[in-house]
Write a structure and sequence with these properties.
The structure holds 2 protein chains of 2 kinds. Chain A is an alpha/beta fold. Chain A is built from 14 helices and 14 strands. In chain A, helix 5 crosses helix 6. The longest helix of chain B is centred in the middle third of the chain and has 37 residues. The chains are: A alpha/beta, B mainly alpha.
Chain lengths: 410, 338
């Protein structure tokens, strides 16, 4: 049981312990679930223009620079990374608040990235979003009933005279008093406002919800309630989540699968247990070592902190080769020359690093050199035979074993 | 999906999550919109309430003048009575001819009742100011929203038009173009010649030069507000652009619009007076505060009462509208400092 369950249980009295432990079970990973959303090489570049009258394009902010992943039906994928790594932009590109500049977002056989604005409207019913800031995501001039009812009216989901009834049902589902439909957002607390935002997202009965840091603006005790609510809703209505957050503990609690982003790229993606216990990318390792661990504090053990030097480079001009190399303790010549490919190294584990390995067991020579057909310094090796990589957004049944350095089939 | 969200009853009975919705102890809670909260603050502000009372008084004056003239016959702004004047055509008697029949004295020269002139003049002045304000507001709000919403070259063009309008030597052009302008108004809008055409011309000119301030305010607000998450949320629902700008953003602009409105009214009342002094706009015998005042200036030393009455009237209207506007701004935006 995580600290979140404990906090909720403590808040609501011991008699409810058992009930709650059952009620808020985190989603389990179903490896055979079909993907509901497939993101392939998604790119979101924002043009940088010069000042002056003729505003020439002088570059691009590569906020999202080719990311691929799949979200299984009813599952949830966590997207973590530090501020400015492009995780929110990725969420907004997937939900088409921004039009992606490259790649595809497949949903039920259609490419969300390329649908016209007109064709997008029916798809809006299927893909919804929960916003980060409950204070700016609700229009202060509209009542709760009008906010939650707006999607119903726009899409003509229910007849006009039943909108109110439906709004009240939705408010009840998210744990608010249905009689409060007549109130204004300023009369609610942060947690309640976030519930209103969730009710609005649920109104269209979406299949996918992109939750953009849904709890990071809330108090810790309220975070637990909202995360539990999301879990209940996910199980009840079989919604797939893309859960964007920077709080590793919340993601660990909510998501059976987690992707780590750095400077517009996914560096590692794996199921929860693998990622948190056996991370293979030096950035993931550094990120995890920076998160406080209650269990270790309790037994007095101290984990070695990995300190990263320097700042995140500018996404306008990211480093050559591997984006992380300027801060990476393992960086060598090859990292500047060749971009590390996304390599599947376990049943549900992919990593993009030339020196992928568990903490303290990173190999001395790049594991990717032979696959890419280069020598250990990253220069083209005429004698090598590059392997055609199966660069699919999902996981395949075949993977590359790091220790044996061969492709294995279970 | 097997069952639509929320259509089953008690699907998620969850004591922990319902505790998030605080139950208020006893008694119905009265919901207050942001507007109602602002009204509460406004009612506590004495100076603003006094100026609001004056504004109401002036508006009532303006509304009742036609009744008092045409229906009840209390006043007659056009009736000339030479018996009230002395040999120099100045009001007979002390204090500019103030008497029980003529509470505010008599007009020198024509011998008309000053109260009637000023009362009826208030109607025309406020009517012109109100029409000009509405023209400026509609122009400014629409162009401001379009400018902020569209961005890019549309925004740039509207921005340049605003700069051009502000840099335009409007008083000079107004005078130079007065006769041509009025002919154009008469030809294109088919207004009857004379005062109606003059009034329409003044309204068009004031409106055409007055919209820039509100357009800039609205544009700025739209620019900051379209990055708010509730706008993204509306996009997320598939709301049309028109819905986003007029249902989501515009309701949040009422505060600056209302404040600008109350500040623009007095500016146009005095602008009308200034134009009347330059002989543009409604002319005598039809009274406006502007033309009564401009007529009275030549009598400032010989018949000071006749001069002071319209001057004080204009000053009182301008001050009370301005104070009301300031108070509204404070009430609607309590965090902003003056």
């Amino acid at each position: 049981m995580t600290e979140y369950d404990e906090a909720t249980a403590a808040a609501s009295g011991p008699s409810l312990d058992a009930v709650l432990a059952q009620a808020h079970a985190p989603a389990q990973l179903d490896p055979n679930a079909p993907p509901v959303l497939t993101v392939r090489d998604l790119e979101m570049h924002f043009p940088v223009r010069s000042t002056g009258v003729v505003r020439r394009k002088i570059g691009d902010v590569k906020a999202v620079d080719g990311i691929s992943f799949q979200i299984p039906k009813g599952g949830s994928l966590g997207l973590v990374g530090e501020s400015g790594c492009g995780k929110s932009t990725a969420g907004r590109a997937i939900t088409r608040l921004y039009k992606p500049t490259g790649g595809s977002v497949e949903f039920e056989g259609r490419d969300l990235a390329k649908v016209s604005n007109r064709g997008l409207k029916p798809l809006r019913r299927e893909v919804q979003m929960i916003f980060q800031d409950p204070y700016s995501s609700l229009n202060p001039r509209h009542t709760v009933g009008s906010i939650v009812g707006a999607p119903l009216r726009i899409h003509n989901v229910v007849p006009k005279d039943q909108t109110l009834k439906r709004v009240q049902e939705l408010l009840e589902v998210v744990g608010l008093n249905p009689e409060h439909y007549n109130r204004y957002p300023n009369e609610f607390s942060g947690g309640q406002r976030q519930r209103i935002g969730i009710a609005r997202a649920l109104a269209l009965q979406p299949k996918v919800i992109v939750a953009d840091e849904p709890v990071s603006a809330l108090d810790v005790s309220i975070q637990a309630q909202v995360v539990n609510l999301l879990q209940d809703l996910q199980r009840e209505f079989d919604i797939a989540f893309l859960f964007i957050a920077h709080d590793l503990a919340v993601v660990r609690h909510f998501c059976p699968e987690v992707a780590v982003m750095y400077l517009g790229k996914i560096v590692e993606i794996a199921d929860r247990e693998t990622l948190y216990s056996r991370p293979n990318h030096p950035y993931t390792q550094a990120l995890l070592s920076a998160a406080p661990d209650v269990k270790q504090a309790a037994i007095g053990g101290r984990r070695e902190r990995i300190r990263l030097e320097g700042d995140v480079p500018s996404p306008i001009n990211p480093p050559s080769g591997c984006h992380f190399r300027t801060r990476c303790p393992l960086a060598r010549e090859i990292c500047a020359k060749v971009e590390p490919p996304m390599l599947q190294i376990g049943p549900r584990h992919k990593v993009a690093c030339h020196f992928a390995g568990e903490l303290g067991q990173h190999p001395a020579d790049p594991v990717t050199a032979r696959i890419l057909g280069v020598d250990n310094a990253g220069n083209p090796d005429p004698g090598a035979s590059p392997v055609e990589l199966d660069d699919q957004p999902g996981f395949s049944d075949v993977w590359f074993d790091l220790k044996a350095r061969t492709t294995v089939k279970p | 999906m097997s069952n639509p969200i929320g259509l089953q009853d008690g699907g998620l009975a969850d004591p922990a999550s319902t505790s998030g919705a605080s139950e208020e102890p006893g008694g119905p809670v009265i919901s207050k919109s942001p507007t109602q909260l602002a009204m509460g603050r406004l009612l506590k502000d004495k100076l603003t309430m006094i100026s609001a009372a004056f504004v109401v008084f002036f508006v009532l004056l303006a509304l009742t003048a036609p009744l008092a003239y045409h229906v009840f016959g209390w006043i007659d702004p056009l009736k000339s009575d030479q018996d009230l004047l002395n040999d120099f055509s100045l009001p007979a008697g002390k204090w500019g001819g103030i008497s029980s029949d003529h509470w505010l004295g008599v007009e020198p020269g024509a011998g008309r009742d000053t109260l009637a002139r000023v009362w009826y003049g208030t109607t025309f002045s406020l009517l012109i100011a109100l029409s000009a304000t509405i023209v400026a507001m509609v122009l400014g709000v629409v162009l401001g929203i379009v400018s902020g919403a569209a961005g890019g070259w549309v925004d740039a063009i509207i921005g340049r038009i605003i700069d051009l309008t502000l840099a335009f030597p409007q008083t000079l052009m107004l005078l130079a173009l007065a006769s041509t302008g009025m002919i154009m108004v008469r030809n294109y809008l088919h207004t009857p010649a004379g005062n109606v055409t003059a009034a329409v011309y003044v309204v068009i000119v004031l409106g055409a030069f007055g919209w820039t301030s509100i357009a800039r305010i609205v544009r700025g607000q739209v620019l900051s507000m379209r990055e708010f998450e509730f706008v993204h949320a509306a996009q997320m629902m598939g709301a049309s652009k028109v819905r986003i700008y007029f249902r989501e953003i515009l309701p949040n602009l009422w505060a600056p619009i209302l404040v600008t409105f109350t500040l623009m009214m007095p500016a146009f009342v005095s602008a009308e007076a200034a134009l009347a002094y330059l002989n543009v706009g409604i002319g005598a015998p039809t009274p406006t505060l502007g033309n009564v005042l401009s007529d009275s200036i030549s009598f400032a030393d010989t018949a000071p009462v006749y001069f002071f009455v319209p001057a004080c009237m204009i000053a009182a209207i301008v001050i009370s509208f301005n104070l009301l506007g300031d108070g509204l701004r404070d009430a609607l935006d309590p965090k902003g400092n003056r």
